[in-house]
Amino acid sequence: MKKLYLSAMLHSRCKQLFPLISFFLLSSFAAFSQVTISGKVTDSTGTALPGATVVEKGTTKAALTSGDGSFTINVSSDKAILVVRFVGFQTVEKAAVNGMSIVLQQLESKLEDFVVVGYGAQRKKDLTGAVSVVKAEDIQKRQVTTVAEALQGQASGIKVRSAGQPGSEAQIQIRGLKNLSDANPLYVIDGLITTANRDFNPDDIESLQILKDASAAAIYGSRAANGVIIITTKKGKNGPMRVEVSAKAATQTIPRYKLADTNEFTKLNYMAYDNAGVPRQNLQVQNNTDWQDVAFRTGNMQDYNASFSGGSNNGSYLVSAGYFDNKGTVIGTNFNRLSLRVNTQGKKGIFTIGENLAISYAKAKEMQGNPIVDVVRLLPTIPVYDPANPGGYGYGSEANARTFGTNPLAIANLQNTTNANLRIRGNLFSELQFLPSLKYRLNLGLETSNDHYKFIRKVGNWTLNQPIDPSRLIENRAQFFSGLIENTLNFNKTFDKHTINVIAGQSYQRTNYELIGASKLNMLFNPSTGQYYDILDQGNSALANGYRLRTDLISYFGRLEYSYADKYLLNAVVRNDASSKFGSSYNTKTFPSVSGAWRISKEDFFSSSFINDLKVRASYGTLGSNNINEYEYQAIINTFSTVVFGPGQAQQPGATQVQLANSDLRWEVLTQQNYGVDAGFLDNRLTVTAEYFITNTKDVLLNYPILLTTGNDGGNPRVNGVTLANRGFELSANYREDRTAFKYGIGLNVTRLKNEVVDLGYGKNKTFVGNTVTQQGQPIGMWYVLETDGLFQTQAEVDNYKNKTGVVIQPSSKPGDIRFKDNNGDGQITNDDKAIVGSPWPKLEMGLNFNAAYKGFEFTMDWFASFGAKVFNGPRSVTDRFDDNSNYRKGIQPWTPENPNTSTPRAYYGTTLNSRGDIDRWLENGSFARMKYIGLSYKLPSTVVKRIGFADAQVSISGQNLITITKYTGLDPEFSNTSIFEKGFDYGAFPNLRTFTVGINFGF
Hints:
By secondary structure, the chain is mainly beta. It has ten helices and 54 strands. The strands form twelve sheets. It has a 22-stranded antiparallel beta barrel. Strands 10-15-16-13-14 form a five-stranded mixed beta sheet.
């Protein structure tokens, strides 16, 4: 430390000698006009501020304060003015007097005035790219497992779909679809490139920024194509130790179908069998099982957090711990998490060192099967238990209930899957402030996770015609390691009206993943406990497996920020990445971007009492994506093959290439233009931001289907083949009123997106997946089905439904059957009559946020809405078909001669056009508006809390997903689907849950 201090002093002395020599050479008498000034710089409490910059105004003469805050500087005359600066404090100008004392006042600036943009921060008002800021309190007020779940409706251009289950990961999409991997955005937490998955505690967040356009995200190059979310965790603040505690308890309920009971089901089922002319089932009408009562339950959440923090001008510390537990709304599901965080920082002179360390342990007991669909498929006449079946559970029979639904209680009890992981992640950083304008930073990041997967299958059955399988145990243990080394140099200088900030850096990250697993059959059963021995030294038929993966990424990057007179802003970024996921000919790529802004409101010609700030922005940049698995450019060799050779026909070991490899794999390259306007009105109480962007992604990576005759037997090889376009408009408007005792704020964000397939590659112009078609010039996954045209009411209508040549189009139909459109006019209904009938993508999405405060009370309400999507109701395609055995919707009215005024065709147990799954009968309007959150809190009066030793205390109640306005008849229009080509297909997705929460937090 003394060497560092000496270095700083020598540097200061050298800077003093150089101008002295110059003056002596020019004019010897001028040397005697130098004046030496000494002094001390402290804060308002008298604490010394080492490392403060002292500059003679109008010159380059400068000095740094030493460890005790003292300084010495030679100035030009006894009338010199000193300018004193220190980060986090107000700048002071004061006449130079020997022995002077300078007191700096700490800035009261708000965190949201600054935005973290990757390897640095900018004033929010100076942004030239598209960046959204989400306040930490808006995330933490919601009762969620992961960060992403809390972002829905909080910012424009952000689309989130929660998986709903305990410990599940939400899908988040920034500015629409840019590739076919549908990967989540890149997360950067305290400078560590990682993920904010289920083992990250959202309560640790201090600030969150979303980098949406290429110019803002280009500093992260090849991993930023899906956007970047930068999270800064909480740090200690100046002052004595502060203790903060929060506790929340929540109950959760799952939405339910309205299904027929035994009486209604029996009537409809007999009708379907009678219309088909087949013998009725021998239904067990003495049973009336509500399978939703069997599968679903009231869930609950517990969330406890405590932190201890403090600091001074020389350092800060924060230690926090959290416990989270979620009992799921589906039987047999649970998730819990323990988390610990330690963030510290210390400063001595020009040297700063700090660390951010997080340790977490998370364990999830996962859902078995899909009870969201099974409760529909199972009949109310089936009992929950049946001693005649292996395992003793009811699931129907050929004579009494021919259905292949799964008994949810049986599968939950007979199968158990747990996933647990211990994760350690954090970074150690150090900084050297060589000059007031020059700083070096070393960032060392580490993330490691020990994962434990365990699956046990007990003896017993849960569905009809299931073979009797032996008990089985599968256990995998894996280790993940990621190491990061970053070196950055930052130059920041202001002179006259010019401000320049330059960052240059190097980054290297290596990830390793190793897995070893084994399985056994016929595990031993302990009759005294009723459990199986779940250790791998039991059972037989042992199998072992394992693999090891490694990825390397080395990068060089730089950014230039320039501002003139606070009205002309320029930002240029370049990053070069080299990735081991590609072959040597294609593994390196450079990603540049440039953006600029003009603050019109700073011009002399601009004068408005209504508009306080007006800025226009434009940017253009490129990003990359390498969202593929390791080694995909290399051939895969299977060593398990054997062959018979020689006169003795002996079996010999062999090896064969089972999957064709593409050695020419290269980066996906995304280019984006962004045009924005930022404006402030009414003393900046009203702020408006509008964005328009155009995105193109070339060389999109996809698995291309090829014939097995080519020798490919290990899956479709990866290629670069598709070109996608994506464009959209975003609008954000926020109004706040805080001039009176009643304070309130209103925020509105609107997003309009459109994706388009420009080229499918390799001469293809269409690709079909399920009930969708993807073709050039159209969005991905458009609905491609047969079109219906009402019901036939009489036999005459059937007979008279002909094409132009007089051919009866549906001669086998009966009154009550669906009439289909013969789009190609060939006189029959075939797949050639299918047409594009709608888009699964919403035309418009919006969020509405309202908050108000008055005398300790705070009220918050957040809405999210989506309009224009057409979605496929998978569960209704089960309940309304009548062609097989499943339950029916309560109150459904199939066509009969006595009830012709209905849209539901006649009940018929058998195959007809009515029951096809590829018809527009199952498509519905997916528009909805949902109150995502409503909450009320009360801050207890200080006179009350001080009596019990607290500095402050607050109680709160809240609800989530309480109101949904929609025409969609499924459980939830806001469902999640992992298939990129079937985003609008509700296959029985886990719905969003209704949550009621009470909480308390206090500090002292």
